[in-house]
Amino acid sequence: MADHYEVLGVSREASTEEIKKAYRRLARELHPDVNPGADASEKFKLVTHAYDVLSDPRQRQDYDNGGRGQGGGDFGGFGDIFETFFGGGAGRQSGPRSRRERGQDALLRIDVDLADVVFGVQQEVEIDTAVLCQTCEGSCAQPGTSPVTCDICRGSGSIQRTVRSLLGNVVTSSPCGTCRGYGTVIPNPCVTCQGQGRVRARRVINVDVPAGVETGLRLQLPGQGEVGPGGGPNGDLYLEVKVRHHDTFSRNGDDLLATLEVPMTDAILGTTTTIQGLDGEVELEVRAGVQSADVLVIKNRGITHLRGSGRGDLRVGVQVVTPTKLGHRERELIEQFAAKHKKSKPQLAHFQQGMFSKLRDRFMS
Question: pTM here?
Answer without folding.
Answer: 0.62
